[in-house]
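Lab notebook, bench 4. The sequencing result for the construct came back, and we need a structural model before the next group meeting so we can plan mutations. Quick request posted to the team channel:

Model the 3D structure of this chain.
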Amino acid sequence: MQSLVTPPALLLVLAMSASAEPGPRVTTDTVEYCGSLAARLAGMPAAAQEPSRRLAAEGMRLCGNGHVRVGIAKLRRAVRAAQANTSDR
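Done. Here's the predicted structure in token form:
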């Protein structure tokens, strides 16, 4: 079976996608990523509105209690809800 992307081409694609981002980004299921999402959410105008506020609080509580993956899922939902509230205006 032939590979669709050769190793040098794969490295080139990874390097190009990494350089497209403005700065380092935490994308693993860690408590640091919880903080990164919370900081991103805090900068959004609709973050204080429901359901974003409730989802964010629940996500941070879950992250703090060691349920990081579920907490991240809640924080991501909070970000999406805040983005939806902003676009509704």
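The chain has a mean pLDDT of 79.
Will bring this to the meeting.
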